[in-house]
């Protein structure tokens, strides 16, 4: 394993705030490992401990076989990191910023230059490559930060919310690059709360919430157990409500006019009949029935979509 | 060590280029303030004589270096801490001290034009001759590094970065009005003079005057006290920058 954390505990404010409550996970060479969880779940705290900006209260972190808690300097050599916050490049062009960080990371000048142009081409950033002060263009700045992390990729590449602010086309290109980095032999730790994107790119993932691991495995493994069910989505007509949801619409989540619920295989006919009835009565605009996604697993484990609590209550 | 030497010029390039617009602006403001100071002396003291002007102007480099170290540096570090830049820099695979050394060098170079212009205009305008010692560059470098380390230490010592920005306003006030840089220490109340016997400000001014004129100052004491502050603030920065939250 290139990266291994065992039973990491990290608290703040004299133990009152538990950021990590016993996190164990491992990432191997060539693997893209997703760390998913809502805001404040403890993801960034864990990353800070891996790269030596924070120290665990207890537990161990091993990078490439070396104790990272005892040797934070070694961990920084091994890990290349894209921070959630934007890197400071007010006076630099993307070309200068990426090349300079590549050299600081120990790359040879010619190789850094070649790789920088390769990344700029592949992420279609050529039009900005010589523009100074891109801080006002959040998405481009984020791409520059990504390139800075992977221009000379370490054995472990840690990307903290790499696609925030990036347009849909370049998001796809960025994910291709992430896969490329993994194929080149790095272990990629991808921190995100974007479940849909993560499902397409990760080999394995851990879902964490309130500092604890709620589930680990491949997307398929995590969905096992929910394979006997499907998800139904109902969109309410404006101003309409459903007083009481039938029991076959389980684990429902209500968000404005949208109702998401789990339907077990044996009750699908009933659910379809009921949904048609709602539509004919003008209560809902439309409905859909689809296979379980990782998002459903995530929601059932985390218990909420960010700030929206799961509820069995009536839609309002 | 090899990593530190290799990364030092690269980090300097990063520090300079990544904040280039602010650096140019800061450098220009320093020059304008300095010119204002040396010429403005005639307005504050209408009967100023060349010996008095020499005393004041040869203390000006200390004001410039301290303004940079104790005002601009903490503001920069506080802003970096707030923006996440500080954590980004600490996440790079370079020795912490290479980061500190590169910033200290940039800040010193940024003050040099203002110091040279202040001394040149001051001596011509007030009609006195500078007696520049060969030790002038290492001495100014020493003052500058000490100021930068103390400024860094201040910015890292406060629990919230915003506090450093507020503290710099007070420091600026103290340096310019309540420090024995532009007037002798005897003019201060006893208790304030006692504080200044421990603080490095008057000793830095002594170092500056001692290497630019034949004014009689205790260079040994000045080097000793400034050196003590330099080492203490460096150690503080070293510990804080190595410390993990």
Q: Explain this structure to me?
A:
The complex is a heterodimer of chains A (316) and B (245). Chain A is an alpha/beta fold and 316 residues long. In chain A, 33% of the residues lie in helices and 30% in strands. A six-stranded mixed sheet of chain A has the order 6-7-8-3-9-10, with helices on both faces. Chain B is an all-alpha fold and 245 residues long. Chain B is built from eleven helices and no strands. The longest helix of chain B has 31 residues, at 96-126. Chain A binds chain B through residues 48-49, 51-55, 72-73, 76-77, 81, 83-92, 96-97, 100-101, 103-106, 133, 154, and chain B through 6-7, 10-11, 13-14, 16-23, 80, 83-85, 87-88, 90-95, 244-245.
Structure at a glance:
The complex is a heterodimer of chains A (316) and B (245). With 316 residues, chain A is an alpha/beta fold.
Chain-averaged pLDDT of chain A: 88
Structural class of chain A: alpha/beta
- Which residue ranges of chain A are poorly predicted, with pLDDT under 50 across at least 5 consecutive positions? 305-316
Mean pLDDT of chain B: 89
The total count of strands of chain A amounts to 16
Strand content of chain B: under 5%
Radius of gyration of chain A: 22 Å
Give the SSE string of chain A. Answer: EEEHEEHEHHHEHEHEEHEEEHEHEE
Taking the alpha carbons of the first and last residues of chain A, their distance comes to 49 Å
How does the helix and strand content of chain B classify structurally?
mainly alpha
Spans of chain B with pLDDT under 50 lasting ≥5 residues? none
The main pleated sheet of chain A reads as: 6 strands, mixed
Count of runs of 4 or more consecutive helical residues of chain B = 11
Q: What is the first-to-last residue Cα distance of chain B? A: 25 Å
Helix content of chain A: 25-40%
Beta-strand content bin of chain A: 25-35%
What form of chain B results from the Cα inertia axes?
Answer: globular
Question: What is the strand arrangement across the widest sheet of chain A?
Answer: 6-7-8-3-9-10
The helix count of chain A comes to 10
What is the share of helical residues of chain B? over 70%
Choose one word for the global shape of chain A.
globular
């Amino acid at each position: 394993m290139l990266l291994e954390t065992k039973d990491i505990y990290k608290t703040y404010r004299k133990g009152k705030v538990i950021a990590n409550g016993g996190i164990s996970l491992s990432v191997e060479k060539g693997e893209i490992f997703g760390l998913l969880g809502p805001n404040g779940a403890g993801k960034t705290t864990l990353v800070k401990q891996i790269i030596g900006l924070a120290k665990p209260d207890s537990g161990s972190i091993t990078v490439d076989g070396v104790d990272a808690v005892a040797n934070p300097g070694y961990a920084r050599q091994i890990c290349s990191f894209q921070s959630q916050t934007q890197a400071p490049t007010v006076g630099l062009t993307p070309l200068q910023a990426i090349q300079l960080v590549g050299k600081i990371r120990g790359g040879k000048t010619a190789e850094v230059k070649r790789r920088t142009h390769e990344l700029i081409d592949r992420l279609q950033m050529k039009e900005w490559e010589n523009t100074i002060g891109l801080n006002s263009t959040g998405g481009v700045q984020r791409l520059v930060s990504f390139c800075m992390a992977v221009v000379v990729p370490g054995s472990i590449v840690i990307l903290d919310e790499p696609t925030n602010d990036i347009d849909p086309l370049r998001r796809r290109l960025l994910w291709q690059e992430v896969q490329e980095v993994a194929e080149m032999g790095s272990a990629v730790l991808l921190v995100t709360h974007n479940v849909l994107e993560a499902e397409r790119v990760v080999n394995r993932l851990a879902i964490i919430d309130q500092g604890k691991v709620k589930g680990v495995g491949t997307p398929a493994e995590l969905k096992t157990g929910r394979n006997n069910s499907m998800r139904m989505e109902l969109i309410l007509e404006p101003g309409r409500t459903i007083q009481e949801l039938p029991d076959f619409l389980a684990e429902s989540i209500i968000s404005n006019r949208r109702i998401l619920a789990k339907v077990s295989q044996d009750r699908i006919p009933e659910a379809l009949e009921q949904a048609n009835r709602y539509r004919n009565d003008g209560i809902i605009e439309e409905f859909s029935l689809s296979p379980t996604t990782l998002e459903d697993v995530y929601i059932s484990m985390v218990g909420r979509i960010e700030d929206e609590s799961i509820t069995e209550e009536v839609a309002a | 060590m090899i990593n530190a030497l290799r990364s030092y010029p690269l980090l300097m390039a990063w520090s300079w280029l990544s904040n280039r617009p602010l650096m140019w602006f800061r450098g220009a403001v320093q020059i304008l303030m300095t010119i204002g100071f040396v010429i403005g002396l005639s307005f504050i003291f209408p009967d100023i004589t060349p010996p008095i002007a020499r005393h004041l102007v040869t203390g000006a480099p200390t004001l410039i270096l301290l303004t940079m170290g104790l005002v601009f540096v903490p503001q920069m570090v506080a802003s970096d801490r707030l923006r996440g830049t500080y954590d980004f820099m600490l996440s790079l695979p370079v020795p912490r001290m290479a980061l500190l050394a590169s910033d200290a060098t940039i800040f010193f170079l940024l003050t040099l034009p203002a110091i040279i212009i202040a001394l040149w205009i001051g001596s011509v305008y007030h009609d006195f001759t500078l007696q520049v010692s060969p030790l002038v560059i290492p001495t100014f470098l020493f003052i500058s590094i000490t100021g930068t380390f103390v400024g860094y230490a201040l910015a890292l010592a406060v629990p919230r970065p915003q506090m450093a920005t507020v503290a710099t306003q007070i420091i600026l006030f103290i340096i310019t009005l309540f420090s024995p840089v532009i007037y002798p220490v005897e003019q201060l109340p006893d208790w304030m003079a006692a504080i200044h016997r421990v603080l490095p400000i008057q000793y830095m001014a002594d170092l500056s005057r001692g290497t630019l004129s034949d004014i009689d100052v205790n260079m040994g004491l000045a080097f000793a006290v400034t050196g003590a502050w330099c080492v203490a603030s460096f150690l503080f920065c070293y510990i804080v920058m190595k410390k993990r939250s």
